[in-house]
Every structure is written in structure tokens, then in C-alpha cells.
Amino acid sequence: MRFKKEKILKILIGIILVISLSANLILLTGRAVVIRKEDYEEYKKLSKLVTLKKFIQENYYTQVDEQKLIDSALKGLFEGLDDPYSQYLNEKEFKSLMEYTKGTYSGIGIIVTPGEDGFITIVSPIEDTPGFRAGLKAGDKILKVDDKEVTAKEIDKAISMMKGPEGTNVKLTILRDEKEMSLNIKREEIRLKTVRSEVLEENIGYIRITTFDEKTAQDFKQNLQSLQSQGIKGLIIDLRGNPGGLLDQCKEIADEILGKGTIVYTKDNKGKKEYLKSDGRQIDIPLVVLIDEGSASASEILAGAIRDHKAGTLIGTTTFGKGLVQRVRPLNDGSGFKLTISQYFTPNGEYIHGKGIQPNIVVEDEQEQLKKAIEHLKGKMK
Asked: What is the per-residue pLDDT for 103?
């Protein structure tokens, strides 16, 4: 009996040492442990989890993968927030996320988000990738990957399933306009070239930004300088289907356009506001920004700042509507997490989450949006 008590005590001490996030143990001598009251209360809340884990390991009818149990419990912790953008990512999933932000991976080239309706929703297919060529569209719901049902809660698993060796196939079952359809798509190495440009008629510059990864701002500046050296008299920035990405890249691009002022401000759970400011540089030619329902997150921040500062005209359709900011953090074992830490607001104080940004000029037809942008600029160019 004494042996069992000592064993339980050792387990208890180990648990307390793990959950004491700030090393708040006051005394540890012999068989006595003294901790702060708030730490003990925290332990009591978590003790059920430890007890159930141990019971499962000892009594489940087959051998249990302990790490899988722990990962599932950690995922459940984030799921309890009822926020589709906050997630615990195991080592493989976190590595996959980091690969995407660096701009290279093997897959089909689509951006997805966990929808509030429980479905994995395509924000946009990336231009000139297998998903784009297969005809996937913003708003499509992914029901199955390789005939296995997936839900918004399993988005990281689904993303992992859609990735794979170059040249192999993946089958997607999607829901579009209440109709199911299946597509077999061959994976490729996705090398994201996020910025391209050209000179259109009447010396109008055109810059397309497909996403915001680590090289986007640098590429944007180079493309803008090239267009300016060719004497452009107006500029179109195309953010259609751009699902967002890294905020620092968005900030650097805004620096080239807005002049001095607020790009965006955030508000956390304590009401504290933080302002992201642009410097004094700005373009001195008429500007149009193309947006649609696939323009999300950082795209909406850039579009909202341009609109509120009256630095340009938004043309197209209402954007996706993601007004939440996530922080991505690695953990020591290679895993990591995304946590929504604040809401963001446009410079004029508009909260666009769930409703998006409305364009100054609405043009529903995709083919007509660029034509309208050119027409609008012709009327404003000197």
C-alpha cells in the first residue's frame, strides 16, 4: 500500500512540474510538495485528463499510441475555442505550414479555410496550379479526400492528404451550388511566383499578387520599379483570389503606396489597440485595386487601407471577410500552434470579419472587371 502511495505521489509531482508554467514550486523536500494555491487549482482542473489518459492506456482493448492521444487532447484544447483559425499542429502539420509560407511544396495549389458551416472551404485556387487548372473555385466545399470524409475540424489532416509526391493523383469530392462532384487532380511541385506584372494599353501598369509569402514584398517592389521605368501613367493591383499570408509583407507593399498613415490597427481581448503605420512613400499615379470573394486576410488589409486613405479605387466584388489576426508559434518538439490573438480594423475603424470589404465600383463579371479598371484609369490619367 505504501509503495502504491509513493508511486502515485511521484506521478503527481511530475504532473505538477509539467503544468507549472512559471516554475512556481515553493518547496520540494522528501515526500512533501508545497505549491501556490492557483497552481493547485489549475492541476485539479487538468487531473481528469491525466486520469482518463492513464485509464485508456491500461484498459483499452488494443495497444494505444500515447503520442496520438496527447496530440488529440491538445487539438481538442484549441477546438474548445470554437475558432476555426486557432489550431494545434503536430510536427508534420507545422512543417507543412512553414513550407507553404516559404513558397514551395508538392500538392495541388489551393488555399483552404475551416468554414463555420463545418466544411473545409476553398478560399481560392492558386493561379496556374493543378487545382486552378482542374476548375476548383472559391467557395467550393471539400467533402472527401481520396473518398475519405473530412470536416473543418480535420483541416490539417485534409491538407496533409492533399499533399504528396509530385506526379501522384488525389481525388477530391466537392460541393458546389448544392451539387457534389469528384475531380482527380495530379500533384505537382508548387513553386509560388506570387507577383507578376506587365504594361497594358495606354501605358497602364498591371501587377498581380497571388499571395503574401516571404518574398512577395521584394518581388512587388522590383516589378513596380520596372513598370515605373517604362513610364506607366496608371496602375492596377490585382488581388482577386489572393487568400492573404504574411502581414509584414502586406505592410511593406502598403509602404510603397499609401504615404504616411495607418495601414491597420488591431484590438486584443483587453481592448489594447496596436497600430501598423506606413512610411511617407507613395505612388503619384491613379490606382485601381481588383478584389473578389477570394481576396482574404492580408489582401483585405491592403485593400481596406487603400480605400480608407482614398489612395485608389476598389473594383470587383465583396471580399472574403476575415478580420482576425493569428500568431504562429513553434514548440520545442517541432510541433506548433496558431492562435487568434486579436481582431483587426481598417484605418477608418471598420471591422470586416464575416462581411468583407465592398468595392467602390461593383462589377460581377470576372472578365469585365479588368476592362472596367482600364476604363476607370483612362478617365483619371493625365
From this structure: 63
Q: What is the DSSP letter of 211?
A: -
Shortest CA distance to 156 belongs to which of 338, 32, 283? 338
Quote the pLDDT of residue 11.
46
The pTM is what? 0.71
pLDDT tens string 219-259: 999 999 999 999 999 999 999 999 898 899 999 999 999 98
What cell numbers appear for 256 in the block?
510603397
Domain range enclosing 335: 193-378
- As a whole number, mean pLDDT of residues 51-66 equals 93
pLDDT digits (tens, 9 = 90+) for 129-180: 999 999 999 899 999 999 999 998 888 789 889 998 999 999 999 999 999 9
Q: Is 236 in the same domain as 259?
A: yes
Catalytic residue numbers read 297, 308, 322
Buried b (16+ CB within 10 A) or exposed e, 12-49: eeeebeeebeeeeeeeeeeeebebeeebeebbeeeeee
CA–CA distance, 213 with 195 (Å, rounded to integer): 10
* pLDDT, tens only, 278-320: 988 889 999 999 999 999 999 999 999 999 999 999 999 999 9
Place of cell 521605368: 229
User: What radius of gyration do the chain's Cα atoms show?
Assistant: 25
Mean pLDDT on 36-63: 86
Residues 115 and 230 occupy one common structural domain: no
- What is the 8-class DSSP label of residue 154? G
Are residues 233 and 307 both part of a single domain? Answer: yes
Same domain, 48 and 162: no
CB 244 within 8 A of CB 216: no
Kindly state whether residue 236 falls inside one of the protein's structural domains: yes
CB atoms within 10 A of CB 224: 21
Q: Coil, strand or helix: which one is 27?
A: strand
Identify whether 95 is part of a domain: no
Residue 152 and residue 273 in one domain:
no
349 and 371, same domain (yes or no): yes
Is there a single domain that holds both residue 302 and residue 165? Answer: no
